[in-house]
Amino acid sequence: MAEWLRAKGVTEWLHRPFAWFGDRTAFAGFRTPLAFFPTRTKLEPGMPFILDVAPVIDGCTADVGYTSWLDECPVVERVLDDLAHHRALIAELAPTRPLGDVYDAVVGLARRQGYEIRHRAYPFGVLGHRVERLPPPTSAFARALGKTTIGAFGLRSLSALGKLARDGAVPLWNDRFAASRPLPHGLWAVEPHLALRGFGAKFEEILVVDADGARWLDDELPHVRRWRRSPEVAA
Prior knowledge:
Elements: H1 2-7, E1 12-21, E2 48-57, E3 60-61, E4 64-69, H2 74-93, H3 99-113, E5 116-117, E6 128-130, H4 140-146, E7 149-150, E8 153-154, H5 155-166, E9 172-173, E10 186-190, E11 193-196, E12 199-202, E13 205-210, E14 213-216, H6 222-229, H7 231-234
Antiparallel strand pairs: 1-2, 2-3, 2-4, 5-11, 6-9, 6-10, 7-8, 10-13, 11-12, 13-14
């Protein structure tokens, strides 16, 4: 994934590519950041997989996540289809409800569906985070900072999120920090992640929040097209 993106001109990251296979898609036992990094697990028939990457081009970040499976995996097919309801719920509630209320609504829906809430395993338990446009690097130091990663995360992007927090803005969407505040206008990378019977699924997309409300940036995505083809999901 990284080689393909570099060939397309990507030199900077919010985070480098992640890939999780099999039961690692459920993030079971992920208690430290090191748990997210690669193991020797190999993708085999019947396994789900999640791919997640956040490249930066011309200061713009696209943080995207995708779930699929090799051959057949009915459990993950079910989880992914039920995530369609979360996508609709988030867009409906985001313009008018506080951050924590929307987070709790997602948790409540997942519990009614019978799922484990696995985005709680992410650092700070985030459902999403702000995606800011980075200013052009104006010095050799800034350019070097943009190409530097700690773990898998780009230093310049992390610095931008830290500056938002220092300025009193809300960079993270969870039920802990500033949960009573409305969702600020801007771009948000949102990633509800659910699990069932030891396997997990998620999507990660960009949500646009402005004076007109909230909308997903792109409706021509693999999982969205899948849902449109499914009579059960459409109903």
